[in-house]
Amino acid sequence: MAAILLYSTACLRLLLAHRRRWPLLFFLICLFFFLSVSGYFEEFLSAILSVFYFTPSRVSSPRAQTVAIPPFLLSPASACSSPPFLLILVTSAPSHRDRRDAIRQTWGSLSSATASASLTLFMLAVPKSPEERAALMHEAVTHRDIIQTNFTDSYRNLTLKTITGLTWALDKCRGARYVLKTDDDVFVNTVFLTQFLRAESGLQYMGRVHWRVSPYREPDHRHYISPELYAGNYFPPYCSGTGYILSHEAAGLIMEQLRSGPWPTVEDVYVGILARAAGIAPRHVAKIAGSSSVPHNVCCYRTMFTSHGMTPKGMQEAWNMLKAAGDHWCPSGVLFYCKLFSQSVDDGGKGVH
Ligand SMILES: *[C@@H]1O[C@H](CO)[C@@H](O)[C@H](O)[C@H]1NC(C)=O
Ligand SMILES: *[C@@H]1O[C@H](CO)[C@@H](O)[C@H](O)[C@H]1NC(C)=O
Asked: Is 124 exposed, middle or buried (0-12, 13-18, 19+ CB in 10 A)?
């Protein structure tokens, strides 16, 4: 809020200096530009959204799940024996060992986990080749941070991966207040994120909201959704799969809406559809980058909760910068800067948009 004031007064002063007849109009344009770039405008819009949702008055423990999902092959449930505040579930592919290692050495490390009361686990299924299966088993024994479910690990099965991850969170990690679902090319500032979450309460479904996305109707598109699967012209607003947060109760209510498959292959869209059915409106959080990558700058990593499209090397650099910076001061308008210069990242087939 301080940053908004700062920018708007700067704009106003500049315009008044020219003694034009329409400084107010310019001022409003400036303000609107600032509000939309920084994401505050969308935060405001999403706050209104909940008015149109039939929000459940009952917050109960979810009823037993009726949809059968494949069994867990690896389930590091002991990791939750003292429940974290924030459970972070990272969808990863078998071949992304380097990305998982980068996360383990940076924001998913023990020091980060301790400082933020978070627990980071990777979600995988069964690799196609026996060599990959053996390598994954070895990795799981070494790190004990892999949830593996018995289905074929493939891009088209990503929705199933998310669903099994949320099921795991609800069954095996009940004490976790929040679940963050993210991908293995996302940098997460766990400390700042948990600080933010500690001030929140109630049913929460937070992230980078996508507002009016139409289903892809061309059968060879990799995000194709048949009219039988979803009939509407637009999906309900949903949070980008690169990083969305569900409070425990919200995850329970969303999973109550689960129906047997087939499901849309785009997992974030499907979570949005389930949330709509559960009456839980997505809430836009400007500091969650969604599909974009923020400028490679320490103040952006300090301000934003996530940045997408990170290479393992970039992740290590971001982490080192953060550690070296300590309590380094960042200007108040830095969110505006980070958003203005953030770059949209092509998901490269990972199934996020
Ligand atoms: C996993 O699935 C395969 C093939 O679907 C099956 O043969 C195997 O028994 C399953 N394993 C477990 C532990 O459920
Ligand atoms: C998804 O997983 C199921 C269960 O293992 C498998 O039968 C199916 O072929 C997988 N889908 C794709 C597209 O790989």
From this structure: buried
Q: Report whether the peptide linkage leading into residue 331 is cis, meaning its omega lies within 30 degrees of zero.
A: no
* Tokens of residue 187, six digits: 């940098």
How far does the centroid of ligand 2 lie from the alpha carbon of residue 151, in Å?
A: 6
Q: Are 34 and 178 in contact (CB under 8 A)?
A: no
Determine the angle formed by the axes of helices 40-49 and 23-38, rounding to 10 degrees.
Answer: 70
Ligand in nearest proximity to the CA of 128: 2
Nearest to 262 by CA among 157, 189, 337, 334: 157
Q: Is the CB of 150 under 6 A from ligand 1?
A: yes
- H or E stretch at 335: helix 334-340
Tokens, residue 169? 């969170």
Q: Tell me, in angstroms, the distance from the centre of ligand 2 to residue 154's CA.
A: 7
List CB contacts of 226: < 8 A, sequence separation 6 or more: none
Check if the beta carbon of residue 99 is closer than 8 Å to that of residue 350. Answer: no
Could you give the percent of the chain with pLDDT greater than 70? Answer: 90
Q: Is 26 left (phi over 0), alpha (psi -120 to 50) or beta?
A: alpha
CB distance 100 to 122 below 8 Å: yes
Tens of pLDDT, residue by residue over 220-269, are 888 889 998 999 999 999 999 999 999 999 999 999 999 887 899 999 99
Is the beta carbon of 71 within 6 A of some atom in ligand 1? yes
pLDDT 10s digits, 16-34: 666 666 778 888 898 888 8
C-alpha separations of 78 from 82, 122, 166, 237 in Å? 8, 15, 17, 36
The ligand that comes nearest to the alpha carbon of residue 163 is 2
